[in-house]
Amino acid sequence: MQFHTFDFFIFLFLVAFFFWRLPSSFRATFLLLSSYVFYSWEIPKYLVLIIFLSLLSYLSGLLINKYREYSRFILVLSISGSLGVLCFFKYADFFEQNLGYVFDEVSPFQRVHSYILPAGISFYTFQAISYIVDVYRGKKIETSFIKFSLYISFFPQLIAGPIERSENMLSQFYFLNKIDLVLVTRGLRLILWGLLKKILVADQLALFADVIFEDPYSWGAVITILGILAFSFQIYFDFSAYSDMAIGIARVFGVKLSKNFCNPYFAVSLRDFWSRWHISLSQWIRDYIYISLGGGRKRSVVMYRNILLSFLLSGFWHGAGWNFILWGGIHGVVLCIEKLIGRPKKFTFISVIKTFLIVSFAWIFFRAASFSDAIDIIHVVFDGLVLARFDFNNLYVVFHLLNVTLWECLIVLILLISMLTVEWFSERVEIQLKFERYSTFVRWFLYCMSILVLLFYGFEKPATFIYFKF
Fold it and tell me: Among 100-104, 106-110, 131-135, 396-400, which range has the highest average pLDDT?
């Protein structure tokens, strides 16, 4: 989905303005219609998909609750329908290509080539499935189709999460009563913080990472490693920026979304990393895949199998390619090893660096255009390190190609470290409350300076996020 930042904030302002002027009984309906407008902004015909999945999940929940003796059959039918839509649009091309290699013939899915992947389909499909499974497990059903549809399509987190649970969101849609200026102010600050992370750090790192990943053989081992590290921080600042903005926008409307990041690059193990990175997805995988497969109360072959399968499926969820599957497999294997030998429980510099390097290595497969490209990148790094080929002059070539100076790169690095430091302290101190103790002059001076910087650096560019394609 392509949204110019200025256009999006005009849309947000108009929705918020009319939302708070409406009677509380109409606010959920208005938010639903606004979400549908948002989703159909670029490709209106895909609105049918989200309405279909909402209707399928809503009716399935009612039927499971009423006909408990057939609940398993209804559950399987509903999940199959939801996954069928997802697979048709996201994975048909992958299966066609791979079946073609095996059987040397054209797949019947070839017609799907003419379709663009619907924005956010992986996220709202998972929300629909979680609701059905929860109802099957005995949790409360939702009788209002308007509020249930809003749960599936709520526009702040529709495109890239967080992946919400029905028990967290649906109850909130019944209490959209009056404006809370404190929540609105804090929400706007989160939106501003997310924009700063996205435009000042993530987008700047993307310039460097994109050049390196497009042609790693041109730069050598050291520059390629810097490109890998640049992407590691780019994807964090990009994705966490979207989550901050989604949480902030939801707060403007009086809705509280789940926290999705908690300093993941300070994790002491890969298990710790997944308790901090894309938290809503890792909890979804745990509750609806890992536990459904049988979990792992004991250190058994079944437990290791379930861990590995869960992360292979997680990788496949991210993208229809063998590189994504291997990315998930790397995480699954390392998690199994941690289970086998134990993991550090205390924060140490060495354990943090080790975890960060493992995660960054896995990001190669996530970022590379294909599996073969990922292998090429690893080959360049391995050969350069083994043969001690360190050509730092290529760094100046990259700077010249990107038309940036060393000073500009240092500014981005300072901003990166500063923002990581702020988020590190925010885990221990309520930064919002601390910031509110500053004088009005200081707060508004920082607001105005931040907005001016954003206007100068990229407010005219489309706000595209990495996870929009998933």
Answer: 131-135
Give the integer Cα–Cα distance in Å for 29 and 85.
26
From 4, 278, 318, 331, active-site residue: 318
Distance CA 294, CA 302 (A): 8
Q: How many CB atoms lie within 10 A of CB 300?
A: 11
Contact in structure between 329 and 308 (CB atoms under 8 Å): yes
Cβ-proximal residues to 11 (8 Å cutoff; 6+ apart), any chain: 37, 38
Q: Is the dihedral of CA 168, 171, 174, 179 positive or negative?
A: negative
Among 199-213, 275-289, 426-440, which is the least confidently predicted range? 426-440
- The verdict on whether 113 is a catalytic residue reads no
Which of 305, 377, 375, 368 minimizes the C-alpha distance to 335?
Answer: 305
Contact criterion met (CB below 8 Å) for 161 and 243: yes
What phi and psi, each to the nearest 5 degrees, are found at residue 462?
A: -65, 135
> What DSSP designation does 259 have?
P
| Calpha distance 260→338 (Å, rounded) | 23
Rounded to 10 degrees, what is the CA torsion of 23, 29, 34, 35? 140
Q: CA 196, CA 133: separation in Å to the nearest integer?
A: 38
- The pLDDT value recorded for residue 112 is 44
Q: Which of 320, 321, 323, 287 is nearest to 306 (CA)?
A: 287
